[in-house]
Amino acid sequence: MASAEQFCENYLVVDAQKASLYDIACILICSTHHLNNKSFYEELSQDVDRSSLDKFWRRWLIFASMLAQKFLIWAKGPMAWIGSKVEIWLNLLSSNGGFFRLVINSIQGKVVKPEESPENFMSIIGELDPRLKMDASIRKGDGRYNRSLAILAAKLSYENEAFVKVAIQDHLKMEIIGFYKFWNDYQNQFTTYATMFQDTSDPNLIVVAFRGTGPFNADDWITDVDISWYELKDTKTSKPIGRIHGGFMKALGLQKIKETWLLKRLEGVYTFGQPRVGDECFGKYMMKMIEDHHLGYYRYVYSNDLVPRLPYDDRALFFKHFGPSLYFDSFYNGKVLEEEPNKNYFSLVWVMPKYINACWEIVRSFILPYWKGKEYREEHIEKLYRLVVGLVIPGLAAHGCKDYVDVSILGTDLVPTIANMTKDEQVLKKNE
Question: Which molecular-function annotations from GO does this UniProt entry contain (predicted)?
Answer without folding.
Answer: triacylglycerol lipase activity
